[in-house]
Every structure is written in C-alpha cells, then in structure tokens.
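Sanity check. The docking grid for iron/sulfur cluster depends on where the pocket ends up, so I'm generating a full predicted complex first rather than guessing from homology. Inputs follow.
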Amino acid sequence: MKTVKSPFKFKGGVHPDYNKELARDMPIERLPLPGELVISMSQHLGAPAKCIVKAGDEVKRGQVIGEKNGFISVLVRASADGKVKAVEKRLGPAGSSADAVILETVPPEDNNPAPILPPLDWKTATREELLKRVEEAGICGMGGAGFPTSVKLNPPPGKRCEYLVLNGAECEPYLTADFRVMLERADRIRVGVEIMRKILGMCAVRIAIEDNKPEAITAMEKAFADIEGNVEIVRLPVLYPQGSEKHQIYATVGRIVPEPPALPIDVGCVVENVGTVAAIADAVEKGEPLLERVTTVSGDAVATPKNILAPSGTKYSDLVAFCGGEKEHPAKIISGGTMMGFAVSSLDIATTKTTSGLLLLSSRKVFQYGSQACINCGRCLRACPMNLNPAEISKAVEADDIKTAENAHVMTCIECGACSFGCPAYRTITQFCRRAKASIRARMAAERAAAAAAKAAEDAKKEAK
Ligand code: SF4
Ligand code: SF4
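Predicted complex below; grid placement will be based on this.
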C-alpha cells in the first residue's frame, strides 16, 4: 500500500468556501430515538420499494416494510420498533413525493438485541452469499445518488472491475460526515474493501481523498497498512467537484467514462462512497442492515453544528433540535451540500439513506439576487467540468427549447453547480439543466411505453391469427 498524488487534473472546477471547520471536529453522536419516523419507500435511485405494511401494524427494527420493486430498486426495513400510524405520500429531500411509513416508535426492549441477519464470516462466505447479503441489507450508495449497491457489485457478463475506487473526497462545502466516518470507522472501511474485493474479484483499490483532509489520509494509511494487493491512497487537489464519480475515476486511474448511458464499469471501474463501504462491513460481519447513517447538520443559523448518527426517517426538526435549535431564523434550508443540495421549505422532511447533510444558512450566506440575463462572460464554460456550454443550455431551456439543450449534451451534465456558482448574472443554470434532463427523461419514458404498447398490440394480433 502506498500514498500517491493524483497525476491527473480535470478541466474546469471551482473553489467555493468550504466552511468545513464548523463541524469537522465534532465526533459522531448518536441521536436519541425520535418519537416518530417517516420512512420513505424511495430512498434510492430506481423504482421505489413496494410498501407491505399498513396502518396499525406493529413492526420490529430491521423488519422489511418495503419490498424491492424491480431490478434497479432497494428494499426498505423499519429503522426502529414501533407501530405504523399511516402510510401516505410525503415530500422527500429532493422535492418529489413518495409513499412513506409514518412510524410511532417504541424504545427497544433489549439494549443488546440479537443481530437482525445472521452474521457471516466474509473469509469463508461465497461471493453469492456476500452479494445476497448486500441486497438483503438494503444498501445503496450513500454518497448522493443512491444507486443499488448489489447491482453495482454484480457487473454484467463481459464486464470486469479492474479498479475499486473509494470515494472519500467529500468536496461539498460544509459536509464532514464522510470525513468523520474515515476517522472513526477506518477499520470498518478496511473490512468493507476486503468484502467488496471478494465479490468483485481481486481488483486494484484506489482510495481518493482531498488534500484538505490529512487526518483522514493518515487514518486510512493506518487501517490499510498491511493490506495485500495493488492498493493506493490517492491525494487529490482541493477542487470542486472532485467527488463526482467520473472525475474520481479520471483523477485516480486516468480513465474517461463515455457519455450516458455508459457507466464506470464500462471503463473497468466501480466507485463506492466510504460510508457505503463501512455499511457493507456491518451488514456482513454484524448482520446489521442499513438502517441509520451519519448526517452533518451545519450552517451559521444552527446553534451547534454536529455529525449525527440517526435512523433513516428522522425528521429534520429532530436533527436541528439535537443541535440546540436555530441560532437565528434560517434564510435557506438545504438538504445536502450548498453545491448539489436541494433547498427545502420545511423541517418536516425526513432523512433517507442518502442524506449526507442538512444546512441552515442565514441571509448573510445566501444570494438575495434574482436570475438576470446572460452577459456572455464565459465564466460558466471555464467552470464546467464536463466541457459543456452551460450558458447556451440555460438560454435554450429558458426559451423552452429542450431540443437545443439536448443537442448541447445536457444529459451529460452531472448537476454539480459549478456553473451557477460563479455566474455574475446569478443565473440558476443548474436548475435549467435539471429541468431539461427531467423533460428529456419523461419523453424517453413515454417513447419506451409507446413502443412497448405497440409491440404488445402487434403480438396480440399475431396470436389472434
Ligand atoms: S452544466 Fe452541469 S456539469 Fe457543467 S458546471 Fe453546470 S451543473 Fe456542472
Ligand atoms: S457565467 Fe452566467 S453570465 Fe457568464 S456566460 Fe455563463 S450564464 Fe452567462
């Protein structure tokens, strides 16, 4: 194992104020069990889970309450003992609504309960047993997108993982949850890597960490000192969006992921967030499904910023109360980080498996200006790490010309926010990109549905003959 500096620098990127000092030295604290949890069936990328409980049901911590509902989907388990008060649509952190189980919690009867799943010895377990465990533990990527981990760890025929890249960059301003996990759970990350290599084959490992986290680099060096095989810790220059999957692959192994629908596995890579890797270790060795995660609660409008270990479904209001409440009325509440997060209007929203941060910002930290006309300064073109022309895309979407945005490759936009960050006209360029992408995806889905209906009609006609 060795530590190296990344030899590859991507084009573009920006340097926002990181503000990580607010929470970086706060050790992970466990939240006392809230009285009510709001457990969403849509905590991951892909089809929401199918809820299998109803109002009045009593559930146990770890019990499956939502079944996997398709290939790209993840099951959901109850994150505490309790009684189902209702199953109803609730708004999620990203602004869309999904079925959620409203659970009135009951404190655990036993402080040292039996494991939820039978613990496995990863050294003797088969690849299939380990893969099944990742699936039944309900694990998805905890870095943001929430891609089902069991799908990622099972490449399609003909594809092979040559490099397992651990994402410890955490380049989003304010967020320090991954940093604390690397400091406090380094041993679990090491075990998670061993398990993933058993599933994926003995691939090389690259642990990507930005240079502004020297303590995390030291913790990883210690934890991985005696690991076998081709393992490197790669020090990345501090540059946003260094934590993007595609940019991590380029920074660590110099490979470029082609345009969608290409995936990292198409260039022989699997990227996984450090928190997810630790969750895999717990699922296998301790039989503990993914029921809780570390979330950073920070910003200048919260009394005491913290890194909090809380069950999935914890309401933001409970997190803020645990931080001593609001220091002043927040002008903006953001679910996630300031660059890629979503502004939310209420603290009634609840955490999911992908909630890395909750920010409460005062009016001094929030732009109060409205979006103005583009002045063609070109700053967003220089900032875009995907080589796009964000100005052209934003103007096209503003004019409802989605086709032009599509021709300008908006689908390759990673929604990093680097373009909006430096725009002197305060244009909401990233939101324009999101709008275009949503519209294109909806059109594609409609086309697929129409094609499937036409084929079904054709088949029915043939059968009738
Ligand atoms: S256009 Fe997309 S990828 Fe480029 S800087 Fe803006 S948000 Fe990031
Ligand atoms: S940074 Fe803003 S003003 Fe400048 S070209 Fe891009 S969209 Fe236009």
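Relevant for the grid: The pocket of iron/sulfur cluster (ligand 2) is lined by residues 374-380, 390-391, 394, 423-425, 427, 429 (CB under 6 Å).
Also worth noting: Residues 1-33+123-366 form a domain with the Rossmann fold fold (CATH 3.40.50.11540).
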